Amino acid sequence: MQVAIDGPASAGKSTVAKIIAQKLNFTYIDTGAMYRASTWLAREHKLSYGDEKGILAAIEQENIELKSVAGQQKVFVGTKDISQEIRTPDISAHVSQVSALAGVREKMVKLQRQMAGKMNVVMDGRDIGTTVLPNAAVKIFLIASAHSRAERRMKDFKERGIKVDQSLAEIEHDIAERDYKDSHRKISPLKKAQDAIEIDTTAMTIEQVVNAILFEIKKSQKKL
Length: 224
Description:
The chain has 224 residues and is an alpha/beta fold. The protein contains nine helices and eight strands. It is an enzyme of class 2 (transferase).
């Protein structure tokens, strides 16, 4: 079974997707982390974030992997755990540019579909329901105000121990800018699939969002 959870930056996709996967004993696939890892590779190899050929060569050379370590999903490039490093503001500022590259998207989508074809998955991102898994049994599109998403991101930075030199207003501006870039890119833009269920998480707790999605999954399972 395939569950697709889409939405803009910091709408709560990864948080709820992890919980749902755990509750259902499904595999969680964080597609955003794969694009962040590609962006990290570009920086490490001192490449331009628009250098598609160079970034693809780096991906082939280094190998991006998602692994479960002590019940938590970790992102590895080769043998190096970069789970923390890909969440910094610098990577966040450039991931839209890298993820808009046609070759990089093609490579990541191929990997994502391979994973989803082997097991029950909960996959989150921006184009899962529209491009990666268009036939997913359940499609969810999460939204929230830019201000509430900025507050969540600030909280996430603190919890991860990531030092940030930005104010809440600056983070909110960055989120709004990323929304624009993601929804206006030519290839697989951020948009709600026609058959997706939209959930506004602005005033909802994590538990409420999880329960709302689980309700939709159980409805779908009854039909299968």
